[in-house]
Amino acid sequence: MDINRPKKKFGQNFLQSDGILKKIISESKVTEDDHVIEIGPGRGALTKYLVHAAKSLTAFEIDTTLMSYLKPLEEAHDNFNVVYQDILTVDLDDYIQKHIGSKVKVIANIPYYITSPIIFKLLESKMVSEATLLIQKEVADRIVANEKTGDYGSLSIMINYQAEVKKLIQVKRTAFYPVPNVDSTVIQIIKHNQFQDLIQDEALFVKLVKAAFTQKRKTLINNLVELSGLSKEDLLNKLKTIDSKYDHFTRAESLSIEDFIRLANGWKV
């Protein structure tokens, strides 16, 4: 068995286009004053550019068989080190505070199958200021979607109420080895606190958003009735006290982030 072959269990699709790699560095606007974390450096395709662009670079890699590719880069660059650990098991803020001592930018080509867990982990971190991530195009479309569109859902709301997200680069599947079944998009996530002071109970807000999109073909009333513990008519009356626009036909995809905040804030009243 060739241990250097891309491993399906780790979702490894290595980006091979130097043009795209250089464009990611350019679009991320990383500078020599920035401390950067890379997730899943693989064979170091993006890493070899990041080490020259950033003040320091820390890479988290789950696959220790890639050490033969990454160790020469570590030896050649004093500002680069690799931590062989699953990023999802790392206490990120603790690590950054102890070993870097400054807020960081994250720049990475992340595995499709753990895209959402990684993004939410980065959003939860107080030490990550922004992230430039290469992800599956379909997921990127869902993240940046606006209300009243087909791609809009709980993922759109949960990310955009915490950050500004924009698409930077479209990447064809043929730029990877092995070639995946889908195209990709590079997105940039820059955190904000635009809604932080408006939400009274964040846990309730999250619960309502997730429940509202449980089944997209169902109306808001049908999706929220179980959570409310009320009859459909009583729930509708409750929603009307929050905003008169609610009716039997209202669907979750028609509601903005601000609508869900008002819904959460008025839910217990």
TrEMBL record:
Superkingdom: Bacteria
InterPro entries membership: KsgA/Erm, rRNA_Ade_diMease-like_C, rRNA_Ade_Mease_Trfase_CS, rRNA_Ade_methylase_Trfase_N, rRNA_adenine_dimethylase, SAM-dependent_MTases_sf
Keywords, alphabetical: Cytoplasm, Methyltransferase, RNA-binding, rRNA processing, S-adenosyl-L-methionine, Transferase
Cellular compartments annotated: Cytoplasm
Domain Ribosomal RNA adenine methylase transferase N-terminal: 20-193
Matches recorded under Gene3D superfamilies: Ribosomal RNA adenine dimethylase-like, domain 2, Vaccinia Virus protein VP39
Enzyme superclass (EC): transferase
Catalysed reaction, written as an equation: adenosine(1518)/adenosine(1519) in 16S rRNA + 4 S-adenosyl-L-methionine = N(6)-dimethyladenosine(1518)/N(6)-dimethyladenosine(1519) in 16S rRNA + 4 S-adenosyl-L-homocysteine + 4 H(+)
Transmembrane stretches, start-end: none
Annotated binding of S-adenosyl-L-methionine, by residue: N13, L15, G40, E61, D86, N109
One Gene Ontology term of the molecular function aspect: 16S rRNA (adenine(1518)-N(6)/adenine(1519)-N(6))-dimethyltransferase activity
Function: Specifically dimethylates two adjacent adenosines (A1518 and A1519) in the loop of a conserved hairpin near the 3'-end of 16S rRNA in the 30S particle. May play a critical role in biogenesis of 30S subunits.
HAMAP family in UniProt: 16SrRNA_methyltr_A
Family: Belongs to the class I-like SAM-binding methyltransferase superfamily. rRNA adenine N(6)-methyltransferase family. RsmA subfamily.
Protein name: Ribosomal RNA small subunit methyltransferase A
Species of origin: Paracholeplasma manati
